[in-house]
Amino acid sequence: MPTTTPVRQLPHPGREEIRLEAVLHALADPIRLRIVTALDPYGEGDGSGATCSQVELPVTASTSTHHFRVLREAGVINQCYRGTAKINCLRRTDLEARFPGLLDAVLKAASA
Amino acid sequence: MPTTTPVRQLPHPGREEIRLEAVLHALADPIRLRIVTALDPYGEGDGSGATCSQVELPVTASTSTHHFRVLREAGVINQCYRGTAKINCLRRTDLEARFPGLLDAVLKAASA
């Protein structure tokens, strides 16, 4: 009998579950702002995005993992597995629907 | 010899000292979002603004004072004394100059 490998999925808040305070908290950190800025050029369609290691950060791998998780749990980024690598992208559409203009204002301010 | 009463002034960051991370951290709290929303209708000219006690909050006076101070130290609000009362107002002009669109996006999201 063939075995199937379950696709590993990470928990994400649904669009309506994304809370403003959590998003602002997630963004209120220089490392996480760097991550968000680094993901800005990537789309959010199927499989597009950057792996964690593609985002250069001056922290250890476990600290990096922590920061990506905070962003995911707040609803700022989507993380999905491709093999063993996590692909990350901004949840632009969801964030724009929930908090119009917020992500763009933060990205603009962070890159100023 | 007449005595002069020094005007008590509270420390505020200058416009160029306002940091994005500090502003986002200050806003990433439901009580502080309530304060910012409550101050939204007030102007920022001489003496305009609301006293701390005019902003109704479900916390003790000392906790309220703490939250106002976090907002002031981050550069989100201006606090000045009128007699013994602190008058609070949003630093709209400074925030808009530093981080265009950010305060408006947060205010809109907080009141949605």
Give a description of the structure:
The structure is a homodimer of 112-residue chains. Chain A is α+β, with helices and mostly antiparallel strands. Chain A has one domain: Winged helix-like DNA-binding domain superfamily/Winged helix DNA-binding domain (Arc Repressor Mutant, subunit A), CATH 1.10.10. Chain A is built from 5 helices and 3 strands, in the order ααβαββαα. In chain A, strands 1-3-2 form a 3-stranded antiparallel sheet, covered by helices on one side. In chain A, a hairpin with a 2-residue loop joins β2 (77-82) and β3 (85-90). In chain A, α1 (20-27) packs antiparallel against α3. The longest helix of chain A has 14 residues, at 61-74. The interface between A and B is medium-sized, with 22 and 22 residues.
